[in-house]
Amino acid sequence: MFEPKTVDTAILVIFIGTAISAGATLVMPWAYGRMRRTKSAIQHEQPNPSRKQISTILIVAFLACTIPGLTQVALTKRRANAVADVASTTQAAALVSYALIYLTLLCCALAIVRKNSSLEVGQHSQIALWACLAPWALAIAHTMYETGMPPIHAAAYPAVVLALYAFSATIPDLRILAPMIGLVAAGSITLGLVTPAKGLMAGASGALTDSEKANFGSTLLAGFYNHPNVLGVILALGAPAVLLAQSSRARWTLIGIVGVAVLWSGSRTALAATLAAFAAVFIAKLLSSPLRGKWAAVALMAAAATMVTIPLMTTDAHALSSRGRIWIGSLAAWRENPVFGKGHAWYSEISKVRNDLIDIAFHGHNMLVNSLATGGLLTAVTVGILLLVASRSAACWARQGQFYPLAYMVAFFVTGATEVATKFRDIDPIFWVAVIPLVVIAINQPKSSERSHTTVPAASFPLEPSDQTDLPNVVS
């Protein structure tokens, strides 16, 4: 276990953790209170009795994903990293990371132990549960084969999945992600404005560098994370959550804040994913109920096809900021062991020797390529099954007027065309927007509805209750 070397470091860790925890304590319970006061659009539909426990798990997981990175940024001089030259994690950041991951494990364990045993889960949820856990199980099997016993914190992934499953987490339970993504976007923008040396991207020397991708000024926004692309992926996957916000005022406020952060990050993948997600929803809202499901299926298939075909059809090594070279080299390596792949840690291992990939290949820069290269066909198939289950659920929800799952899955596929949102093993900075929504969407397929085209689930663009007009915006 890591320990701070000095009292000053310990005090700094406590200060940072306390400050962010205090902010979350103020913002998240208020947001939860807003959720409780929402009137259901379906009068007979009751809110999830376990929403408080689910919200607690989501808040703790969010803190575990966010605070360690912010601590690292606060304590180190920002600079660009290569695979063979990664800035070492500070002891303070490591302490915060371990503490919050173990807290996540504890919260999930206590929540499951205390849960109401009368909760019922349908057959679809049981199938989806196995689909959610299969990629993790294969990643752990790879780790055990390569290095022995996996780290204990790897248990956080199944703990969160099982807790969400045990409490039958629903789409409305994800509404708390809206203020969370607003907090990340607003916090990153503030960091970039107040302390550019901490919030903006720097070169290998540590000095701020110009970028041809910059939309604002000449530098890119990295915010709480080590690279603008990481911030971009988080924003792209979190942006659909604004559809779950309480009021139109809150939604437009969040869209504006997240939009500015996406543009400042310079992530073209994030911009494309965000625009595609909201475009899919906009078109779906123009259609009648029977056509919504068909449109959702078409949109999801097109987005998934984009993710799969782009790397397979790329022959130019310099295409898409040299991602072509990563894809060509990764697929060539995969063919050496097509069933099991090269191992979970392959991208970090090849950095130690001369290789055909460029020195910034932390992963495969594509969900399919990364799955094949590290886990072979077994991992690619299990991930594909999970995405298929979630996509089917998203199409069903779209037919009934709930568009968040559609927007999220489109964003996931488009993001996965050039980035890797999750490796399905650990809690990392993207876990809270890459795994948690995917799991909840997968385990929730709407019940067969009556033949009515006016039925709208509670979470779909809820109207603002008349007695709440004096409340502040979700993000100020």
From TrEMBL:
Polar residues biased stretches: 466-476
Chief location: membrane
Pfam families: Wzy_C
Highest taxon listed in the record's lineage: Bacteria
Coiled coil (residue ranges): none
Region of interest called Disordered, as start-end residue ranges on this chain: 452-476
GO CC, one annotated term: membrane
UniProt domain O-antigen ligase-related: residue ranges: 257-381
Topology within the bilayer: Multi-pass membrane protein
Keyword Transmembrane: yes
Cellular compartments annotated: Membrane
Transmembrane segments: 12-33, 54-75, 95-113, 125-145, 151-171, 183-204, 224-243, 250-265, 271-288, 295-313, 372-391, 403-421, 427-444
Keyword annotations of the record: Membrane, Transmembrane, Transmembrane helix
Protein name: O-antigen ligase-related domain-containing protein
Organism in which the protein naturally occurs: Rhodococcus qingshengii
